[in-house]
Hints:
Blueprint (H helix, E strand, L loop, with lengths): L13 H14 L6 H12 L4 H11 L3 H10 L11 E6 L2 H5 L2 H12 L5 E2 L5 E6 L11 E3 L2 E3 L7 H6 L3
Parallel strand pairs: 1-3
Antiparallel strand pairs: 1-4, 2-3, 4-5
Helix pairs in contact: 1-2, 1-3, 2-3, 3-4
Amino acid sequence: MPNVKTVVPYAGTEEQEERLREVIRTHKGQPGATMPVLQAAQEIFGYLPEEVQIMVAEGLDIPLTEVYGVASFYAQFTLNPKGKYQISLCLGTACYVKGASDILEAVQQRLGIKPGSITPDGKFSLDACRCIGACGLAPVMMINNDVYGRLTVDQVGSILDKYE
Length: 164
């Protein structure tokens, strides 16, 4: 698998941008405006691409580095688009000791992407996380709200087939 991150071009609409400009107008000049504006921006766009971060920085008249710092620090924000099917694979202790790294490798091989990436068709995104909260089912993977536990490598293909 090539070590290339899939780059999805910015695809914001004029309507989305206008909604963001309205949010910025209502928060401009308020202390601590960055967080609520970024939360609204992510709700509008689904993630925080560079173009959106620039709009926020310019609109709030703050440095882009401040916007990026907040967006990259807090786990609630994502700088990458998410697929129609969002795969989260737990790499927490219980899952890891029961073979989660092998499951992750199988998903990566099948989809041709690494954690933090999206397939070129936008169908799947892959993230590794620290805990899903289902340690008794380790190793665990979620696809959107569907939980798959006690996984083995040979189950990966048939699970992903359900979503293709």
